[in-house]
Design a protein that fits this description.
- This protein starts with 14 loop residues before the first strand and ends in a 14-residue tail after the last strand.
- The N terminus is likely disordered.
- The protein has a single domain, classed as Neuraminidase.
- About 0% of the residues lie in helices and about 50% in strands.
- It has a 4-stranded antiparallel beta sheet, with no helix packed on it.
- The chain has about 300 residues and is mostly beta strands.
Length: about 300
């Protein structure tokens, strides 16, 4: 597979492969669990959680019965926390049973919960989105270990890309259609955010938009540029460091995993959520694995509850 000329680091060894050709309608939210050495990801539109090994074996799926925006594993046992269309739930992965924690937006039927991730202290930070992707009715939330909910920001159309600097004191987040990635000061002790500013401008000239993000061990932010088929790496000061061209246009999110946290797993969608978005090639909806990048990620935390 051809590698773009601006893919600087690891040019001679980088390899992009289809790991699981599962054709997720809207693949999203990959999470590598270092305890189980397993990758979890979701089909947001079809309401499924999927899991496999580093090499794509032992595929398993859970049906949660409604659209899902994100998930994280809990501190102990075969348990997860999931941001579903109608609220945050606890999920028993053995029985499949769901228990509602809280529905933060019951009066907004056009909204649903979307991207989320666990901070370095074990709190679940997630956002909502307008399903028509044109109204700034969504918010950003933090769910603490005691299951109390706190609003961090608002006036958002589509919440995406939450992640933290290696030290956990800078929080990154984007509203997909803002054309920007934002950085906030993040208080590790309280989980409060402040001082929102523009971290980087997103190149939307090719029709792409900001989607899922992760941060590597060098403090660089990686973002999936959905509809443009690109992965972009930004330095800690917000400069574009590297661009990887993917074999499909609708790449959605990414995370580092594998035994050495040096494989980049990338999700994609098989079908766009709205008619105005473009179609894609044969590998649409696949889960990809990129090796040979010469970069390691940071182990994701479990939800502390």
């Amino acid at each position: 597979m051809p590698i773009p000329h601006n893919n600087k680091k690891g040019d001679n060894t980088m390899r992009i492969e289809v790991l699981v050709d599962v054709k997720t309608t809207l693949g999203e939210g990959p999470v590598w669990d270092v305890e189980q050495q397993r990758l979890y990801w979701i089909d947001s539109a079809d309401g499924r959680i999927l899991r496999c090994t580093e090499d794509g074996r032992e595929l398993r799926a859970w049906d949660v019965g409604q659209k899902i925006g994100s998930m994280a594993l809990r501190h102990s046992g075969e348990q997860a926390i999931v941001a579903l269309q109608n609220g945050v739930h606890l999920l028993d992965l053995n029985s499949g049973e769901l228990a509602l924690v809280i529905d933060p937006e019951p009066a907004l039927p056009n909204n649903r919960l979307n991207d989320g991730k666990v901070d370095r202290q074990g709190r679940f930070v997630f956002g909502s989105m307008d399903t028509l992707e044109d109204s700034a009715s969504a918010k950003l939330y933090r769910l603490d270990a005691d299951l109390s909910l706190h609003t961090l920001d608002e006036g958002i159309i589509v919440s995406n890309g939450p992640c933290w600097s290696p030290a956990g004191d800078t929080f990154y987040f984007c509203d997909t259609w803002s054309g920007e990635i934002w950085a906030y000061d993040y208080d590790p002790a309280s989980g409060a955010v402040s001082n929102r500013r523009t971290f980087a401008k997103v190149d939307t000239s090719g029709g792409g938009a900001a989607d899922g993000c992760t941060v590597d061990a060098e403090g660089c932010l990686w973002q999936a540029l959905v509809y443009a088929g690109k992965l972009v790496r930004y330095t800690p000061d917000g400069q574009v460091d590297r661009i990887i061209q993917m074999p499909v246009k609708k790449v959605t999110s990414l995370t580092f995993g594998g035994p050495n946290l040096d494989t980049l797993f990338v999700t994609s969608m098989a079908k766009p959520p709205l008619p105005r978005f473009p179609a894609d090639g044969q590998q649409r909806g696949a889960l990809f694995a990129i090796t040979g990048l010469g970069v390691q990620g940071i182990a994701e935390r479990r939800f502390a509850s």
